[in-house]
Amino acid sequence: MRTVWCLIDYCAYRSSLWLPTITINLRWLGGSHDSIPSGLLAGRFGLIVICFPTSRHVRTPEEGWCPKAAAKLQPSDFSAKSTTLSDWDPTLKEATTTRTAATYGNIVNMATEDARYRTSSQFRLWSFTPAHLSSLRAENNHLAKAAISARLQSSVPPVDHLPEFLTSEEELSLLNFYTVELLRAAAFLELPTDIRATAAVFLRRFYITNSIMTYPPTELLKTCLFFGCKSEGYFMRLSKFAEKFPNTSGEVVLAAEYVLCQGIRFAFDVRHPFRALEGAIMELRRLGDFDAKRVDRAHGRTREILKFSPLVTDAYFHYTPSQIMLAALSMADEGLVQRMLRDAFAGQGEAEKENVWSVIQSARELLEREPPERMTEYWGSQETNKSMKPLIKKLKKCRDPDRVDLVALQKARRQQAEQKKPKPTLKDDTAIFGGPVDDREAKRRKTAANGDDPFGPALG
């Protein structure tokens, strides 16, 4: 195993889908033949270890692909001129590296953040335009009304009058209300920030493909919280979790778990903007243009915004994590974002920069509808609770009668699965002797015919 040691002098922060390049200065420190696990950059300055087998094909800009080049090349073999990373690998068009001295060949597959985000389930399955998302909710509301109406009319005895159903706008209002309730419950349980955000995203994803009238949000809320702990690798005992809620057992929490997985299309990975924020703050501190206290204040305020505003709106469905982060940071301190954009788009013209800024502004307008202060000033007020009571009362009258009790529904489905009769087999030649002979019966007869000798009767 060859090991290359490089000192990272400067690593520019890169936000997905908007910053075109990443720049790294590498300074050669020397190599060894020890098998050392690869390391990652920690902080602004750090030591990165790049390990690769000595027999691996390594390429230089001058030589192309070179078998066993790792055993032959030395630092002095490389010129000190600036070389783009695309010279090393043509597929990496967007990433460039400026180096005072090159390292050994196939350094690292520096796939850009936007390319990696496009491969995520969040982008492929859960990214919508506002118009598309609105149409999905309207269609889902219409299908739920039709299904519930059919069940009520076919019930015994049938209902005389159908209830007044929720509109898609009323469902969205209830969804926002129960999202805030989920965040309150997560705070009561003292769950980490990532788990709170993941659970909230799960709840909002589920009610894009399912109606609040079909599955009770009070039960799904608990399931989302517990399953969010699972998906983020945070262990919490089911009995301990259930006892935190009144009239709740572990069976109640797990009853909707598989339904939840189906509703979110088994997409358990949620990309949050918190890591992007830490990278942006590191970059601002590196620039050194601003007072440290100003950056720290913006950092704290942005985290407060990200913990609430994107989760109670549809920001996760319309924007990338880095765009959400920049929108929240602009709410905290617009000057910091402008400075980052000016540095990122230096020499690239104003048109591209303005396009990026317009996206950030549209995301900011969405987040400003639900600033973090509304958590207590609006959603926690008596006026809001009073205004939500008619909708909750209306929901109780029009919900699906077959799915009110998810525990009973799960038990009924399990019993149906256990009572399923095996499919009849096709008749064959052995049916004339009373049915097909199974493998065990045939083996028993063969053993009996051969006697006690495991190798069978004597030949001849």
UniProtKB/TrEMBL annotation:
Keywords tagged on the record: Cyclin
Example of a GO MF term: cyclin-dependent protein serine/threonine kinase regulator activity
GO biological process: regulation of transcription by RNA polymerase II
This protein's record includes keyword Translocase: no
Basic and acidic residues bias locations: 415-430
Taxonomic superkingdom: Eukaryota
Cyclin C-terminal domain mapped to chain residues: 272-368
Protein name: Cyclin C-terminal domain-containing protein
